[in-house]
């Protein structure tokens, strides 16, 4: 089964908790704090694998979690960091944040990899909080939570040349004739229901990849037929071979077919029309093909809407007539055509939020439930809360000071909070005290 798009959930590991501990050794009555730091949580990493061709592996396994870091130990021992969770994907996979619809990365080359969910850093042990005023602090941090994201994976085939056209114009037959691929071939529409790839190898050692796409029909860009499912696979191609049946066997106008297919490409993505096209007249072994080809050439030459009339080449995949000139012309155009950027993959320099980077969202928000409870939320505030160990009074007091420093107390007063009102952060509820 060919699977080219899927949505999965990824969760990085939390950092290990820092420890509250003290040296208790003979002849060391005032040993001081000795609680170690927690280990780093594992990150979720996507990496290209040359052994994969589809996203089938993700169809039934859609949740991926990295391990948590180990808690800190006594004698200042740091907990073990967790291994990253590496997820292998095929070449040509684009990763998109499902919530923001922003492209995270475009993994094209062998060895490409990207951290999609950053593991949380380990919490600091009490050895870090000793001061002259408080030489024996009962204070340690919990590990930072790991990032969690919903990621959409879209596979766009890595092909140099794309075969486009109406159903039954001979795309699969051409692919089988010029490559070693063995696509399904039949005398009925939509014989091809998934893209097929093949490699054309020239005698001089050069080669190029060809993608045979399921047949387009009028309205494909609006979701009719199979075309909309696979149009994205020609986004990486540099040259399009536009196959047109000139035999007249199905009583279609070849010139009208040319206009309809290009209209669908324009509706899907106007940039697709910027790619060089070679119009390939197929089934030239049939009786009326030569006459119909001349009519097609005349109409294309007289079409004032075209910037330049496209190159027209005639072939018969059955008798192999015209295949060698077609391949040579395709290679010639490929050598002159650079790669086209994939839509939405222009600004991949965006840095993922890590523990050393500020969180750019609002520090906190205040809302009120129907029962009168004040509810505090916000990425920064919730992060501080999750890293606070409420089992120790000093940690709780430190958290209260952090809230005051962020301006939470003043903001609650401005909203109308009074002494004794309940305030909730996540699943923790406390009283507001003036």
- Amino- and carboxy-terminal Cα gap: 64 Å
* Widest beta sheet: strand line-up: 10-11-9-12-13-14
Low-pLDDT residue spans: 188-193, 346-361
Radius of gyration: 31 Å
The main pleated sheet reads as: 6 strands, mixed
Percent helix range: 10-25%
What can you tell me about this protein's structure?
Helix content is 20%, strand content 21%. By secondary structure, the chain is an alpha/beta fold. The protein is elongated, with a radius of gyration of 31 Å. The termini are far apart. About 5% of the residues have low confidence.
Lay out the secondary structure.
Elements: E1 5-11, E2 44-48, E3 63-65, E4 85-89, E5 93-97, E6 103-107, E7 113-117, E8 148-155, E9 161-164, H1 171-178, E10 196-201, E11 207-212, H2 227-230, E12 239-245, H3 254-268, E13 277-282, H4 289-302, E14 311-314, H5 323-336, E15 365-368, E16 374-377, H6 379-386, H7 393-406, H8 408-415, E17 422-425, E18 428-431
Parallel strand pairs: 1-3, 2-4, 9-11, 9-12, 12-13, 13-14, 16-17
Antiparallel strand pairs: 1-8, 2-7, 5-6, 5-8, 10-11, 15-16, 17-18
What tags apply to this protein structure?
single chain; about 425 residues; alpha/beta; 6-stranded mixed sheet; 8 helices
